[in-house]
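It is time I had a proper look at our fold encoding. Can you supply me with one protein entry, sequence and fold together? It will help me judge whether the discrete encoding reads sensibly. Leave the record below and I will have a look:
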Amino acid sequence: MKKCTYCGKEYPDEASVCEIDRQPLQPVAPMPPPAPQSPVTDTQRIIDGEHLKLLSIFHFVVAGLAFCGVAFLLVHYLFMNAVFSNPEMWKSQPNAHPPPKEFLKIFIWFYIFMGTLFASAGALNLLSGLFLRQRRHRTFSIVVGALNCLQIPFGTALGVFTLIVLSRNSVRAAYDH
């Protein structure tokens, strides 16, 4: 079988010039048979298992840090509420007046927003850590890894390594079984 390098039309072996554009024909090399996929070696399975175990531990650590962030926000809110709500604290200062109540309401919305972010990140990482241990819901862990990339610096490192490990063919095969 021969093929025109200009238009791509194929001709039988006897032809030497393309009928359309008069370009010389080149022989078509047969496609090589697809290489057999090598089975995953035992060494690779051990390495993948260790990497998945480490990823699950680090997902638990990031989840713990997120829940510590929620606790910090709660303590911070209690402290700020005590300072802004107690008029006795402001009497010792001669020209100081307590801030208006609206000032604390702005902080309350900040606390709610950040607390929701920390709590959801903690819950997602906790679930992802559990799923990584059980070798289930690979796509969920990939999405959580991508979201972790937004949490600088620990989440970014964890997210990148999660994406690298979970995109390996050998790990994909481990999830299929």
